[in-house]
Structure formats: C-alpha cells, structure tokens
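Note on ligand handling. Small-molecule inputs were canonicalized before submission; formal charges were left as drawn, and no protonation-state enumeration was performed. Where a ligand contained multiple stereocentres, the stereochemistry in the source SMILES was retained. For 2-oxo-3-(phosphonooxy)propanoic acid, this procedure yielded the string shown in the input block below.
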Amino acid sequence: MTYNVLITDPLSEDGIFPLRQAENLEVRIDTGLSTDELIEIIHDYDALLIRSQTTVTREVIENAPNLKIIGRAGVGVDNIDLEAATEHGIIVVNAPDGNTNSAAEHTMAMLSALARKIPQAFLSLKNQIWDRKSFLGVELKNKTLGIVGLGRIGAEVAARAKGQRMHILAYDPFLTEEKAQKLGITKGTLEEVLSQSDFISIHTPLLKETRNLIDEEAFAMMKDGVQLINCARGGIVNEDALYDAIVSGKVAGAALDVFEVEPFVDHKLLTLPQVIATPHLAASTIEAQESVAIDVSADVVSFLNGGLVQNPVNLPSVSKEVMGKVGPFFDLAEKLGAFVSQLIDGIVEEITIHYYGDLAGFDVRPLTRNTLKGVLQGNLGDHVNDVNAKYLADQIGIVVNEYKTSITKGFTNLLTVEARTKNGTRSVSGTLLNGLGGRIVKVDKYYVDVVPEGNLIFIKHKDQPGAIGRVGTLLAKSNINIATMQVGRANIGGDAIMMLTIDKYVDGYDVNQLKELEDISDVTAIQL
Ligand SMILES: NC(=O)C1=CN([C@@H]2O[C@H](COP(=O)(O)OP(=O)(O)OC[C@H]3O[C@@H](n4cnc5c(N)ncnc54)[C@H](O)[C@@H]3O)[C@@H](O)[C@H]2O)C=CC1
Ligand SMILES: O=C(O)C(=O)COP(=O)(O)O
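Structure output:
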C-alpha cells in the first residue's frame, strides 16, 4: 500500500530522510498554501507534516477522509484543531525535544539584546548615527529573571540565566519544591513572579488557560521598568495591554519572537522603540530543524506502517517499559471488547474493565482504549481507532470504569470486561498464556479455554444428554464444521454452556434453527 504524505511548511531536507527512504510513501512538498488551498487538496493525503505556519482547522480535517496522522515538526500544536483530529481518529504527533536548546538559546539572545538595546543601537548605526547616550543598558547580574512555565525550554533558560548570575524565580503549576531546589531556583506563585522580577520570560504553551495570561491586570502587578520576553506563543501576552504598559512607562522593554497573528508586515508594537522582535525564529537553527524533522518523520513512517509513535499528542504516551508489559495484551483486550459487544442484548450503557494481577501495576489506559475499540467496532467499523475510541464512547454516553487489583484470580494476569445494557450484564475474561497467546477463560460464570479468534458460537443449554449431539447434527446439516468445542456447567443437570469454534460464520437462519433445539436456551454467533 502506498501512502501520500504532504509537507506544507519548510522542513529540513536532511531531516525528512526517513520519509524519503520509505518505499511505500509518496512525498509532496507544497509550502505556503492558504487554508482554502489546503482544504482543496487534503483529501488525497494520508499524512500531513507542518510547522507553525500551517493552520489545521476543523474544516481541513473534515475534508481529509484519508488523513491518518498529522506531524508537527516542533512543539506547539495550537495551530491544529486537536479536538477535531481526535474526533476523526487522526493521531497528532510532535517533536517536543528537538528544538528545546535552540529556543532556549534564542531566548537568551533576546534577553541580552533587550538589556543592552543591541538591535536599536545597530539600527541607529545603520542609519549612520553614532549615538552612545540613547542606548544605556542594564546588567543581568544579580537581577531576578521570572520564568512563567518551567518546562523543557523554561528549565534550559533558567540554567543559562544562572550562568549570567541572575536569580531565577519560576512559576509553573507542576513545579515541585524538590525540582526547584535541584535546579537551584526559587519557586513562586504567578503573582510573586510578576511582582518581584526585573525580567520576565514566558515559556508556557498557548492553551485556553494561558491565553491573555499576561494582561492589563498582570502588567499592573509588575515592577516599574520590568522587561518582558516572549519566545513562546503570541496570544499568551495580550498585545494591546503590552502596548499600553510600554507607552505608560510600566514596561521598559519587550523582546518578542511570537505574535497573535503571524505572519504580518505591520504591527503597532513595532512602532515602539522599546520593542525588539524576530519573526518566530527561536526554533530556526540547522540543528533544531534537522532534529524535529527526523523525529516527526520517523513517527509518521512508523505509524503508517502499523508501528508505534514516540510523541503522540492526542493519545497518552506510554513508556517503553509499560509498552513491554501491556503491549502484548492489546489484541486480547480488543478481542474481549468485540466478544462482549456481540454477546450482549441491547445497547451498551456501561463498560467495566477489571485488571487483575501484574497488569494492575501498570498504566492500563491503552488496554482500556483497545477494549473500547473492540466494543465499538461492531457498530462503527473502521471509523473507530485508538485515537477516538474513548472520545466516541464518551459521545455515545457509555460509562467506562477501570478497576485494578493485584489479586491474581488464578492467573498471573487477567482482564475481565463487563458490559451492561438495560437487559443485564454480560462478561468475558481473558489472559495471555506464556508462549501460547491469548485465551478466553471465562464467559459470564462459566470457565472455558478458547482461542479468541475466528468464528465462534456461544450456546446456553441444559446439562442433559443429547444436547451437544443435537447441536453437532444441526451444524453438520448446514455443512458447518466444528473445529473445537468447550463445555462448561454450573452444576450437574443445571445451566451449562457450549463454546464452539467453527470454520465459517453461522448466519441468522442457523442461529434460529439452533435456538429451536430442545434444551437450548440461548445462541450467539460471534466473529473475532
Ligand atoms: N518561538 C518558537 O519558535 C518556539 C516556541 N515554543 C513554544 O514554547 C512552548 C513551551 O515549550 P516547551 O518548554 O518545550 O514545553 P513544555 O511542555 O516542556 O513546557 C511548558 C510548561 O508550561 C507549563 N504551564 C502550563 N500551563 C501553565 C500556566 N498556566 N502557567 C504556568 N506554566 C504553565 C507546563 O506545566 C509546562 O511545564 C511551546 O508550547 C511552544 O508554544 C517552543 C519551541 C520553539
Ligand atoms: O516548536 C514550536 O512550538 C515553534 O514555535 C517552532 O515553530 P516553527 O516550527 O519554527 O514554525
């Protein structure tokens, strides 16, 4: 199968070699498209690779029936409608580590340039003016640098600024006292950072919660003469509020790499001599571009060829260690979900997954997702995948519960999937047998040992002589060969079950015939 890959922003040619090398990928590079132009052509593509200049709107996604993966060669994914991508089962991956160093170095360059007014002085010289008195700077040494958002880039900036003998005061909701101590910085509240810093550098993502984080009120808290650096995202700092704060003299200077609307040619902030700026260049180094392009290309190639991705944005990422433990259960979980969804009578209202034994010690969310995928695929087909299974379950209103216990229930690992409808609850349990693969070991209250594969018939009957024979004879009449048969019973002469694996699917007619047989109370044909 050949996949079509579209690249719409400039990516390092050396970095995309994983794409070029893959034999089953057709790569087209078409940069500078408008959103309308992208909407026109996107239906042909299986993968889309972008940087910050392409905006992937809901409309783009709704016009992309073949799109499976969006690769963001960089960190910020605020230019992608993640909700729409998830709803459509499109995985989004990014390259979170590749440009950290470049972004931190650019921030430091902006910090120094801002403190010493280097761009303004250079511009003056270019205009043939030898002016020394207008460009009196301030030292960084002993000043407080406030960092808002101490993630990868924020932490690298902190480390570098310490080298400039600055005091670092950082606010990040996830910053612990231990981490702050380890980094040799001070942890503060947002208010403390805003009110006590001489320089403030922003390093959060652009989220609902961080849009306009630095607004009029925030500026009012700051020291007079504060200087601001934003190399994170436009929109986190309110541009009108910044403009007013500079004009009023509250803010002595600002260094901006990012803007609310990009690109632009004219910007009112650039009319102010206190503002220095670069056109979103923090990640624009040879090294960062090669690195982010390699990372997303590798994920795109792997994903399109059925493999795993390293940096999913709209799926929880799973460490190698966890993947080693839970990965082998993926198929079993999906099969158990598919099994129980065919066993139930009515619309599923609640799915409860019990994880017993060793498995309970791990992050089992990928298994829950796979179970839900199995449950939903019967009705929704290929539209359901890992990315949207949980979303679709939520949309339909299915309550999903996950229980974990180290109790082993007789198996080192056991998964039990219960599905509740208005008509009752049905359940199926499965395990992985060392070297032998998955097994269904229990259906409702009956123990069985069945390979979860192919065509199955689940029959409830009375434990009476002749019941099994009658089933065999009827199937033989329809030329249906029985491959394996398991029988289980609650007590002698009481309720019992048969689980048959057969060589072809039994249709509705045969199922009804089976139901008519003496001592048979229920028949379900299951396809896995
Ligand atoms: N100008 C450029 O070329 C570049 C810009 N960026 C921007 O920088 C951002 C940060 O990148 P990384 O450090 O790699 O991401 P990261 O995810 O490692 O760090 C972001 C940090 O922000 C924190 N945060 C979230 N909400 C917050 C809030 N309300 N207040 C304070 N902190 C908050 C998070 O807890 C996290 O620690 C990216 O999302 C991207 O938008 C990244 C690379 C290059
Ligand atoms: O990685 C990020 O978040 C960036 O902002 C870098 O943007 P770019 O890839 O240079 O358009």
